[in-house]
Amino acid sequence: MQLLTLSCANCSAPLEVRADLERFTCSYCGTAQIVERSGGVVCTRKLEAAINAVQRGTDRTAAELAMPRLTRELDELMSQRAQIVHRVQLRVEHAKTGRHTMAIIATFVVVILWAIFVSPIEPKSTLGEILKIVVFWIVAIGTPALVYRETKLPKIDLVQETEHLDEKIDRVREHIKANRRILDTLPT
């Protein structure tokens, strides 16, 4: 059986190990190690360091694979959010249109009432007729304004409407940042 003379990767103690061994534990410090062979050179490396190197490679591969999926997921969430915002804007615009329509209808009603009940001013109008016309104009201007003011727009809280999506978007962005850090710090 052929023996290799090596040094412990942790404590530098002299070691003699069989040539066919791949892993062993230092009898001096108890550190698990692997035997690496490359180009006729044989050396030891802490098993923990070898595992960490594999883990870094695995982390990088996982990050590379996750980035397209996370990007797609973020795009889908942003699209869903944009659709919700668009629907909310349509509801508000619809309500505003309804409010304007109500004010216009009120104006037409007042004009029709003018045509039916109020006669035009004659050259010799009495104070009562002038007062009637003044009251009419107050009503003519005030009624549509009152209808407009009293027709309420829906109370829409955009934050509440999009809150659940915003939370998901924030989580996906954090995952993207974490994966970007892995890709930026780990060697290829």
From TrEMBL:
Q: Which residues cross the membrane?
A: 101-118, 130-148
For whether the record's keyword set contains Transmembrane helix, the answer is yes
The record's keywords, sorted A to Z, are: Membrane, Transmembrane, Transmembrane helix
What protein does this entry describe?
Putative RNA-binding Zn-ribbon protein involved in translation (DUF1610 family)
Q: Which organism is it from?
A: Acidovorax soli
